[in-house]
């Protein structure tokens, strides 16, 4: 019942309790009621005519037995049929009949019909239902999550009858309000229950009422206030029991105060209360969150000593916590122990194992676990399939991911945003943007709307493919779907404009974001800084750092590496080194991109010694050179004819298990073929430097009359074979 309905209800005088009927319920009346119910159940399409004939034979109106019929049928469809029959024949029902009808409808929770009946019967005193009947409706609303409707009807009952609905209805409403986190309204109801409670047989408050409020307080972290509430109601229909202790213990554990929760456990045992599964479960959960597994083991042993079986829910909590704290072996040992003691793994256990196997890259193991769960006839859910779909998507096995998606739907499960999101992200990372767009289309057809994150992933993929117009079109579609762009979406657009060479539009968009009071975030600022550097506007790039720090957005390694790379590309090695020193002083750890940019800068200046110092520095800081780092060094050495150096770097690259790329091979082939005479001499122009073994092979081939370019390719092949030989030797030794 909505406020709009309540506003149509006329103010009523406070009704007097109804205690008698207009006529006695005789055996004949009961027999007639039974006949009516039988006609409704069995007569099919002829029921209406049969009813009219039956009542025509009696000197009784259908409305006079309506309340008895509604009480008898127990089937809301039959009750509504009879209600329609009475209404169509213009018989007027009284409050008793409406009360019985409302109780029937409330049991079946047909809320559309309940609203219609309430709208009709609450407008006159003659039709006004009993307080008990309205209590039934309040319970039905509350138990079905329609808590605000229940609260409105509760207020109506309070105002109209100057009395509360029955206790069960009030407790149901209290419970619904607390679940929804609406503690203000819960206190309004509870305080009225306390005010009207006389402590007698017709109590307006009981243990359950107080326990509901204690749970609500504990949910808010106000455990001490919950304890005070119990003490305040002590002896007034509020007898302490294990449920109160469980609520307080759970509250302390969720607040992170496991010590006090454990003290309360000891206190309840001293007072003669027996802890339950729920008691121990809350304590175990608290210790698990803190990673105190020795205490967890003590609690489990105590449960065993009391002859209490540990259920799967408690074990699941332990398994999940051990995974989160990195104790993978111990987590698996716990699952083995579960099986040994006869505690069956449930779907939560399997989901935890599947998720962590996928996280550790053990996808085949995760799939075997899924198969086991199916063979155990457990009911799978989204969490059973989603980690596997994500894992296969990360590995680029989209065929298997798609098969699992189909299998998921065949199990009656509807893939959600998270499920589709992992598949779309994997496809975009693999460069399959069109396939990702197809998945987005299918998810929308199935009623799952993409969020800003999925749109951002797709737009990012389109921009990297050079399809910026398509990315802009996707942005328009996003706005049409009423999905608000976030900082990441705008950053993607800024980056897209920059990639397409449209710096002015990128800057306009970025300035527009700032002027609208939005925070571009670190990603947005980094995108703009990248644009400044790409177009040689280094002063603006540095000034952008100043602007972002004033807005409490602080640069990261990517910010600095982008600007340092920008300085290098502008041939400003001094500017790059100055900023690099600033980064070191601020205790930032430079990444491989920063080091590689500096190495490139020194190489551009012909300072190989300086580049090697940077290479030595990055190794000392625990950063491994990558293919770009080695390729920059090899390419520069080849251009300057320093074949020994280039070959040395190439051998080092192979030994570091860093795979060369096409650019590396191109530099080496050109360098060797263009500087073949240098390879014939014992040393190159770097006095005293012995030729690497592979370069010696190349020199011998040139001396034997090989064409330089052919010798260069054989040289590279020899390098790769040498590397394979070294690995095989190591494996044989192991």
TrEMBL record:
The record ties this protein, via InterPro entries, to: PPR_rpt (IPR002885), TPR-like_helical_dom_sf (IPR011990)
Q: Where are the PPR repeats?
A: 166-196, 206-240, 241-275, 276-310, 346-380, 381-415, 416-450, 451-485, 486-520, 521-555, 556-590, 591-625, 626-660
Q: Which SUPFAM superfamilies does the UniProt record give?
A: HCP-like
Q: Which domain of life is it from?
A: Eukaryota
Q: Which residues form the signal peptide?
A: none
Pfam families referenced in this protein's UniProt entry, alphabetically: PPR_1 (PF12854), PPR_2 (PF13041)
Transmembrane ranges, per UniProt, are 712-733
UniProt keyword list = Membrane, Repeat, Transmembrane, Transmembrane helix
Per the similarity annotation, which family is this?
A: Belongs to the PPR family. P subfamily.
The protein, known as: Pentatricopeptide repeat-containing protein At1g52620
Species of origin reads: Sesamum indicum
As recorded in Swiss-Prot or TrEMBL, the protein's gene is named: LOC105164364
């Amino acid at each position: 019942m909505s406020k709009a309905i309540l506003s149509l209800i006329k103010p009523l005088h406070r009704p007097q309790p109804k205690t008698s009927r207009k006529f006695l319920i005789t055996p004949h009346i009961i027999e007639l009621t039974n006949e009516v119910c039988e006609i409704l159940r069995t007569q099919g399409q002829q029921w209406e005519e049969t009813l009219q004939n039956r009542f025509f034979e009696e000197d009784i109106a259908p409305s006079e037995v309506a309340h008895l019929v509604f009480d008898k049928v127990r089937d809301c469809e039959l009750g509504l049929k009879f209600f329609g029959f009475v209404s169509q024949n213009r018989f007027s029902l009284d409050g008793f009949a409406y009360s019985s009808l409302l109780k029937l409808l409330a049991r079946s929770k047909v809320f559309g019909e309940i609203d219609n009946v309430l709208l009709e019967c609450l407008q006159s005193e003659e039709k006004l239902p009993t307080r008990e009947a309205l209590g039934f409706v309040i319970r039905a609303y509350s138990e079905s999550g329609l808590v605000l409707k229940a609260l409105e009807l509760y207020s109506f009952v309070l105002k109209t009858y100057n009395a509360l609905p029955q206790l069960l209805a009030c407790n149901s409403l209290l419970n619904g309000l607390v679940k929804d986190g609406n503690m203000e309204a819960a206190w309004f109801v509870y305080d009225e229950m306390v005010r009207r409670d006389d402590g007698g047989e017709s109590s307006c408050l009981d243990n359950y009422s107080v326990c509901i409020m204690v749970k609500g307080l504990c949910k808010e972290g106000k455990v001490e206030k919950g304890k005070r509430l119990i003490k305040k109601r002590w002896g007034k229909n509020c007898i302490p029991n294990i449920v109160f202790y469980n609520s307080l213990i759970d509250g302390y554990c969720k607040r992170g105060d496991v010590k006090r929760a454990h003290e309360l456990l000891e206190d309840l045992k001293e007072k003669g209360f027996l802890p339950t599964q729920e008691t121990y479960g809350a304590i175990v959960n608290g210790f698990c969150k803190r990673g105190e597994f020795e205490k967890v083991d003590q609690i489990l042993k105590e449960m065993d000593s009391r002859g209490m079986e540990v259920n799967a829910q408690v074990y699941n909590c332990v398994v999940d916590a051990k995974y989160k704290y990195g104790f993978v072996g111990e987590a698996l040992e716990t699952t083995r122990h579960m099986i040994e003691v006869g505690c069956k793994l449930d779907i939560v256990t399997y989901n935890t194992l599947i998720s962590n196997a996928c996280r550790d890259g053990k996808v085949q193991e995760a799939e075997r676990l899924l198969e086991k769960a199916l063979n155990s006839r457990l009911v799978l859910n989204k969490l059973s399939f989603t980690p596997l779909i994500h894992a296969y998507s990360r590995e680029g096995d989209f065929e298997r991911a798609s098969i699992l998606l189909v299998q998921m739907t065949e199990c009656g499960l509807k893939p959600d945003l998270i499920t589709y999101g992992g598949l779309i992200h994997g496809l975009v990372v693999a460069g399959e943007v069109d396939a990702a767009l197809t998945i987005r289309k299918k998810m929308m057809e199935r009623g799952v709307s993409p969020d800003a994150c999925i749109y951002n992933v797709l737009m990012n993929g389109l921009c990297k493919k050079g399809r910026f117009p398509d990315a802009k079109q996707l942005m328009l579609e996003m706005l049409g779907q009423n999905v608000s762009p976030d900082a990441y979406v705008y950053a993607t657009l800024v980056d897209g404009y920059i990639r397409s060479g449209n710096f002015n539009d990128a800057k306009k968009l970025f300035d527009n974001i700032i002027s609208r009071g939005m925070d571009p975030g670190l990603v947005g600022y980094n995108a703009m800084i990248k644009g400044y550097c790409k177009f040689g506007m280094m002063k603006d790039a540095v000034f952008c750092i100043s602007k972002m720090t004033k807005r409490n957005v602080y640069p990261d390694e990517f910010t600095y590496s982008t600007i340092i790379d920008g300085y290098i590309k502008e041939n400003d090695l001094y500017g790059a080194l100055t900023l690099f020193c600033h980064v070191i002083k601020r205790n930032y750890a430079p990444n491989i991109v920063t080091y590689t940019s500096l190495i490139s800068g020194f190489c551009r200046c012909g300072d190989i010694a300086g580049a090697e110092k940077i290479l030595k520095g990055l190794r000392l800081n625990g950063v491994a050179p990558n293919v770009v780092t080695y390729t920059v060094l090899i390419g520069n050495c080849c251009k300057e004819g320093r074949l020994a150096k280039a070959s040395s770097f190439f051998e080092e690259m192979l030994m570091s298990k860093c795979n060369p790329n096409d650019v590396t091979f191109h530099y080496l082939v050109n360098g060797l073929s263009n500087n073949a005479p240098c390879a014939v001499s014992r040393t190159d122009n770097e006095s005293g430097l012995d030729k690497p073994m592979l370069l010696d092979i190349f020199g011998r081939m040139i001396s034997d009359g090989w064409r330089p370019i052919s010798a260069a390719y054989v040289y590279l092949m020899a390098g790769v074979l040498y590397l394979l030989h070294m690995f095989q030797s190591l494996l044989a030794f192991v």
